Amino acid sequence: MCGIVGYIGSKQAQPILLNCLGKLEYRGYDSCGIAVSSSGIETCKDAIRVAALKKAAPRLGGTAGVGHTRWATHGKPSQVNAHPHLDCTGNIAVVHNGIIDNFQRLKQQLTSEGHKFVSETDTEVIPHLIEKYYDGNLEKAIEAALGDIEGSYAIIVVVASESKLIAAREDNPLKIGIGDGEDFIASDVPAILDYTDRVIYLEDGDISVITAGSIKIKQHGTEVAREEHKISWTVEDAQKAGYEHFMLKEIHEQPKVIRDTLVGWVSGEPIVDLAMMRDAGIEAMLVLACGTSYHAALVGKHIVQELLRIPVRAELASEFNYYGHTLAGTTAIVITQSGETADALKAMKRLKEAGCQLIVITNVVGSTASRIADQTIYTRAGPEISVAATKSFMAQLMVLYWLMMSYSKIEARRLASMTMELRQLPVKVQQVLENEDKILACARYLSRYEDVFFMGRGVNYPVALEGALKLKEVSYIHAEGYAAGELKHGPFALLGGNTPVIAIAAQDNTYEAMLTNIREVKARGSPLIALAEEGDEVIGELADSVITVPKVDAIFSPVVNTVALQLLAYYTAKERGCSIDFPRNLAKSVTVE
Ligand code: F6R
């Protein structure tokens, strides 16, 4: 997720903008840039770090300007794709956070009207739209431009020889920092805390005209007053947006991540060349990944089996690399959040050499995996700072649902009802997040133990694996995920009062079998926490404690169950005083085999 900043006042804008951008580095970014206005607009931007931009930038004179750190979503990290973006005249500069859903249509139309585009970004349509509508009244032009846009945005606009900045937001955060005869704008509070602790939070639909020392905010053309807040956080607190850890912040970002990742699908944007798969008449599929991404692959396997009704193998990339079988003609999907995991890359090269069709699902635009693949589908989770993967896993699931629903061979009515459910998932995930008190109580209880089993069945077996992985990596409790039916084939020997079991009881064709497994576990004396759908009264009588999750179509149950288990792992680790965001011995990107 990108960061944006703006400054207007009596001081030189350039050093202030660069300092503000430096304070946003924690969010992760692949390129950055600034634009400063005086009699014209001067920009300096590149796919480099902020420190390098500071060194490389010539002196840009002017007391108003905008800046941006970019996390690529449309187009690779490069100088031309870095923000700010300009119109044809070079007099209008825009920085933008968010996603313009209908940018392709707008770009086509603007191109046919004579506008020349230089980047691959969705953002570039904004300065061109403003240019199209600009007849001397900047506010009106921006209002008209935003009226054409579908999607989410926080933008700051600066125009040559107009001593004002205009900021607007829809579904993306934006704040104005009030100084003494100067104003600051930022997507995130840490950017401006060196200069002011007085902040106004813009609301969705707000358009604000900011001059040095005056702020006017309009909502649907009517002037509105917004309260001023005093920020008491430190820069570090502010970077976590008030959450104690990045992991918790990222867990809470998931409703938005689901929406952002599904944007392309909802707007009908082709995710991969569907013809490639259809024409190939694929009869089987291979899904490869490591760690948490492998658990997404295992959920994907169930989705493929149910929706496409073709055989599918999900393999650990590290194991697959040592299989000796022939691969010719395979359609393979590789899932890798970072796009840099050595085992996944090795598997990709092997598949490529064997002439396989290779699709990669990754969160990092321009990553090595995306360069090797025939086709890349980007998840839109934004940068994940916590080493333990949470929101990137969720985004991977969304792509898998969306991709497989696009190819589905199931009847139209079921597909329509699944589509409706898919769109409801952000709300359902929000409901899980609001059940934190109950999960916290279970976490307190769990934190006293050293061994825990997670059991699931069907599409929730991978969720048991993921729940165990999350718990062990952040709380250092020994945890194992098991297929519930397998516990009796060995692990029963470990059950007893010191080994709690977490059972995922989804309302699908595995439910009755899971009840039997729960009874078996209870008979062996293990404390039992169940994850169950709201309204499930049977579970309440069997389990020692129940975490309820909202009702969803069973195929989507991994979504709500995973969020509950992420929170359980987080709070257990917190109770044990662990280093949650940076667990011992682990790295975010595993670039060795
Ligand atoms: C666990 C975790 C790791 C990664 C694994 C693969 O929380 O983050 O298990 O999932 O290292 O990484 P990517 O998806 O980058 O290939």
What features would you describe in this structure?
With 593 residues, the protein is of the alpha/beta class. The chain is 37% helix and 23% strand. It contains 20 helices and 25 strands. An eight-stranded antiparallel β-sheet has the order 3-2-4-1-10-9-11-15, with helices on one face. The chain has a seven-stranded antiparallel β-sheet with strand order 5-6-7-8-12-13-14. β21 (451-456), α17 and β22 (478-483) form a beta-alpha-beta unit. α8 runs antiparallel to α15, α10 packs parallel to α14 and α10 (291-307) packs antiparallel against α17 (461-475). The longest helix is centred in the last third of the chain and has 22 residues, at 412-433. It is globular and about 80 Å long. It starts with a strand and ends in an 18-residue tail after the last helix. Residues 290-293, 336-338, 341, 344, 388-389, 469, 473, 589-590 line the site of fructose -6-phosphate (F6R).
